[in-house]
Amino acid sequence: MIDKKKQHHPPTLDLKNWLPYIREHNIITDSLWLIPKRDGSGSMKELHHGEFIPQIPRQAILRFTEPYDLVVDPFMGYGTTLVECQRLGRNGVGVELECKILEVAKRRLQEEPNPYNVKVEVIEGDSAATDFQKILSKRGFTEAALVISHPPYHDVIKYGSNPKNLSNAPTLKHFLQSYGKTLDNVLKVLSKKGYYILVIGDKYTKGEWVPLGFYTMKETLKRNLKLKAICVKNLEETMAKRKQINLWRYRVLKSGTYFFKHEYIMLFQKARHTSNP
Ligand SMILES: C[S@@+](CC[C@H](N)C(=O)[O-])C[C@H]1O[C@@H](n2cnc3c(N)ncnc32)[C@H](O)[C@@H]1O
After folding, report:
1. Residue ranges of domains in the chain
2. I need a surface site. Which of 61, 182, 186, 217 has the fewest CB within 10 A?
3. From the CA of 253, how far away is ligand 1's center (Å)?
């Protein structure tokens, strides 16, 4: 007889029987994430500029959380993390500054079924000035098992005109300060051995490579977090770039630069002591 209760249990990694789990969910175990295609199923059909692929939060949730754990996303954007929470039976809280973007996230969550009856909450606000403890306790949570953080890649994409948006930070220094404030706020609710995932890419300014990934990693390591992995993920070509591939090739040849074909997924875990200075 089929155990209905078990059938409706959200997926969870059992190290005594891990092989079927990693096969079923395509769990990546090495640091090179080559994901050929974005999963555009369900409410994720429509793609918005600057959102990450659903496979990123899915991998993180499936490896680093248990069913019904809480996942927090301080740069929620169009709600990709929360959609994955809903699909995989994890509770979720996301904070987003821009109302227009937040509305897309809300719509997506309404369109998606909620098979495990989890709570996912979308909150409008500035993560650099948000009291996450208050937000969680109001909703009956005490801590998060996982924080997924996907800040703007500084000014590469403008997400809105609000000066508090990290994409409008006037300098790199201001960007890192605001990122650091958000980090301090959100780490207050991360559980003792909870995981923090940072997804970020680098940028060019006037023909010079600006390693945002390494700067934000350095900022992150100032807190009590242990670096567990630096993964590199392929970036698909955008439609616009694909159409003008030879123009882009010429540009990089002329300026002595390269196309961005990768971004970073950095994994940290809360720790009292770290070896990194
Ligand atoms: C790289 S996008 C995140 C995309 C998201 N992972 C998704 O898949 O849709 C960064 C988001 O952070 C938001 N943001 C920037 N500054 C913020 C702040 N101070 N507080 C809250 N959200 C902020 C931006 O408006 C943008 O939607």
Report:
1. 47-270
2. 217
3. 32
Domain 47-270: CATH class, spelled out: alpha beta
| CB of 201 sitting under 6 A from ligand 1 | no
DSSP-assigned letter for residue 163: T
H or E element, residue 59: helix 55-64
Residue 148 in contact with ligand 1 by CB distance below 6 A: no
For ligand 1, whether the C-beta of 150 sits within 6 Å is yes
Q: Per-residue confidence of the chain (277 residues) as pLDDT tens digits?
A: 444 445 589 999 999 999 999 999 999 999 999 999 999 999 999 999 999 999 999 999 999 999 999 999 999 999 999 999 999 999 999 999 999 999 999 999 999 999 999 999 999 999 999 999 999 999 999 999 999 999 999 999 999 999 999 999 999 999 999 999 999 999 999 999 999 999 999 999 999 999 999 999 999 999 999 999 999 999 977 666 777 889 989 999 999 999 999 999 999 999 977 777 7
One-character DSSP codes across 105-146: HHHHHHHS--TT---EEEEES-GGG--HHHHHHHTT---EEE
> Which one, of 201, 60, 26, lies nearest residue 144 by Cα?
60
Question: How far apart, in whole angstroms, are the C-alpha atoms of residue 7 and residue 115?
Answer: 11
Mutate to test the pocket of ligand 1, among 123, 165, 200 (most ligand atoms within 8 A of CB): 165
Candidate from 44, 96, 132, 135 with most ligand 1 atoms within 8 A of CB, to mutate: 96
**Ligand 1 site, residue 101, Cβ cutoff 6 A:** yes
Q: What is the largest CA-CA distance in the chain?
A: 67
